[in-house]
# Entry
Amino acid sequence: MRILVTGKNGQLGRSIQKLVNTDTKIDNNQSSNYFIFAGREELDLRSESNINHYFNNNKFDIIINCAAYTAVDKAEQEAELANQINHLAVKQLASIANEQQARLIHISTDYVFDGESDEPFIETDIPNPINVYGRTKLSGEKALQEVMPMNAIIIRTSWLYSEYSNNFVKTILRLSKERDELNVVSDQIGSPTYSADLADVILEIIKHKKFKDAGQTTQIYHYSNVGEISWYEFAKEIFKIEKIEYTVNSITSQQYPSLPKRPRNTLMNKDKIVEVFNIKISNWKSSLNTCMAILKKQQ
Ligand SMILES: NC(=O)c1ccc[n+]([C@@H]2O[C@H](COP(=O)([O-])OP(=O)(O)OC[C@H]3O[C@@H](n4cnc5c(N)ncnc54)[C@H](OP(=O)(O)O)[C@@H]3O)[C@@H](O)[C@H]2O)c1
# Structure
């Protein structure tokens, strides 16, 4: 199996690389799975011709698309670029996956929902994104399903963090060194996702019979760590684990200047992925502990 992972320098791409390099069950060079990691240097998703050129010279059995335009705030000004990467490039990847008879695993987001439900969203709930990023990601999902009604998987995840790149955990730790106290919103609820956990699940899925069997209808799955919290609670827990006395003030979204609207409640129900692939999901606190222990070692 030749497996392409796009977005090799992003959080999820790096988490998958780490796992492939350390998981002896996978054994990149000797097992039947051979992973190839591509960043924008090799595969620039802004250019249709570059994408075609890359795949003309490379054939795959599985494509895992971890690349995306993820700057939620900036997307409001760069809607066209966000749409190219999150929608049009995904459509093209789906079409190429069809031609190559490859399976496609694509990552999407809780931000396809408007957050106006008091119940966790299930996969069949009608999306209604309220910002540019969410709209482009939803367009990508729809295009993928249209072009590739079989043999693909869309995993919607939320609040992704890791020891890599920029994310909430690293930003909070950095800002706490620069400021005496922090204001964090407490009226947006969701579930954090440690990208190493999501990487693990993706690798479990590709080994699973239900994924390997050809001719499966394309499916959407929801995945995050277990737990329901606000960004404020998330920040408080970071300092608790660090054993630092630090002032975090709870504020409302209205008090936080943000150009794009952000959904209020993006909890997602994960029963489907648990049942179909028989996976166990860690609690957000234990995964946060794991990530922060790694960050500490890096200091
Ligand atoms: N981060 C979150 O909180 C979150 C929440 C929900 C869902 N998701 C979804 O989860 C997936 C993984 O997110 P992540 O946090 O790992 O994202 P990330 O850290 O921002 O990584 C995204 C990667 O995409 C690459 N990329 C951007 N534009 C590209 C282009 N034109 N051509 C090729 N590659 C390009 C970036 O390359 P460079 O490194 O060169 O910039 C980056 O490595 C994405 O689909 C995202 O939408 C993320």
About this structure: The pocket of NAP is lined by residues 7, 9-13, 39-40, 43-46, 66-70, 85, 107, 109-110, 137, 157-160, 165 (CB under 6 Å).
